[in-house]
Amino acid sequence: MPLISEITKLRATINNWRRQGLRIGFVPTMGNLHAGHLQLVHTARLHCDKVVVSIFVNPLQFDRASDLSAYPRTLTQDCERLAGLADAIFTPTPELMYPEGQQQQTRVIVPGISQVLEGALRPGHFDGVSTVVCKLFNLVQPDVACFGEKDYQQLALIRKMVSDLNMPLDIISQPTVRADSGLALSSRNGYLTTSELAQAPELAATMNALAERITQGERDFATLVNDASARLNGRGFTTDAIDIVDAHTLLPITERTQAVVILMAAFLGKARLIDNRVVSL
Ligand code: PAF
Predict the structure, then answer these.
(1) For position 1, what pLDDT does the model report?
(2) Which of 63, 127, 133 to mutate to test the pocket of ligand 1 (most atoms within 8 A of CB)?
């Protein structure tokens, strides 16, 4: 399984596959791979003949330098986990992706969706995501790209970018992969201490309790959010954001809303954990 860190080599590999009429699947990642990522690779494999995984900790999407430098880089273990699953691993450097520096980089900005919710809390984050994903799509030229539903807003952003820019590929999403405790798998779980790891499933439990109340007909969303926030804060978390919005538009709920998404973000120690769940009204 080749480890590719040059654009010319990546293009040669892709062109060779294309000449053979093979379909190419792509899983973009920032490394520190867990079972959720491997599930995405399996899904890509179901739809394609060859699967490329990129591992690139994208500086353009980090709003805090400390978060970027602390992000776990585990290339050796990642390659071991991908052995026999991926056909190529693309590992560019920041210099390869942004040769003129980040300031000079042309940006892809997805209006609306990039500025609300998580985008309002982390200005510029989603511009960094859409820009790097667009560049990676242009480099790999996949037929299919796979993303996890855990990053709900990111998935919606990428779907809109692909649609708005008529990009010739299909986006396939994969339900969040969870530990037996209900905790959503995330590279950021690695920041948790043993005792925090035991507390962490409370995020999903609080979200599920919220979902249950909505299913049973409660519609006072402000109260629901306050209750969930108080529950988390009373159990060792610091709530960052809990939103209940239209699952399709990510905008406030209207009388036309058919399903809502509960978006949870809370700090537990050094880790900022996120989760989400869609509930039909
Ligand atoms: O979800 C991620 O890991 C990243 O945001 C992505 C899509 C690989 C872009 O850097």
Answers:
(1) 79
(2) 133
